[in-house]
Specification:
The chain is mostly helical. Helices cover about 85% and strands about 0% of the residues.
Length: about 190
């Protein structure tokens, strides 16, 4: 099979994987009565980062840790500049108060800790890896807790989605999420 066909097949898989992932995650968020921002920052971000995780793990297992670092740093730069930049060119990206008070400081803190660790240790020790995972889990827990406490009023768009989502079973939403992750994984190969 030619490289052009592989590229086209990969793009199709990425498109449908992203569609299923977003559909399942939004429905799941509305059923769980948490904001779509929280689901975007937890479930969707974990799922869309899974291809990078697989590539980085494979690179480290094959002894190419520089590929893993380049993948992580390059992916974050591309997500912030390219993905957010293109989205902002097409639509106005509105920022919530929660994003300003919780999400930005956490992203800045994680980036600073990562930079300091790389500077002083010339790599990432296993203990620091566990620290980052604990920070991630605490951040996800804090996001969900904050979202449920605030219990933001649903906008009209979310009301329409909630009506649609109420007909879907939770298993269908989880199936969409899993199918989306699988398609994204194979669309990135």
């Amino acid at each position: 099979m030619s490289p052009s066909l592989f590229l086209l097949l990969g793009l199709v898989l990425l498109f449908f994987g992203g569609e299923l992932l977003v559909r399942g995650s939004v429905s799941l968020a509305l059923k769980m009565k948490i904001s779509t921002l929280v689901v975007g920052m937890t479930i969707v971000s974990f799922a869309t980062s899974s291809p990078e995780l697989f590539v980085s793990l494979q690179a480290v297992l094959e002894g190419s840790s520089n590929i893993a670092f380049g993948n992580v740093i390059g992916s974050n730069i591309a997500n912030i500049t390219l993905v957010l930049g293109v989205t902002a060119m097409i639509f106005r990206v509105q920022i919530s108060k929660q994003t300003l008070t919780l999400n930005y400081p956490m992203m800045l803190l994680a980036s600073l800790v990562f930079g300091v660790i790389l500077y002083f240790f010339n790599g990432v020790p296993a203990a620091v890896g566990f620290l980052f995972i604990v920070m991630l889990l605490l951040f996800a827990w804090l996001l969900i807790l904050t979202s449920r406490k605030d219990h933001l009023k649903a906008e009209t768009e979310e009301d329409e989605l909630l009506e649609k989502a109420s007909h879907d079973h939770i298993y269908k939403n989880i199936l969409y999420l899993v199918a989306g992750v699988v398609l994204l994984k194979y669309g990135n190969c």
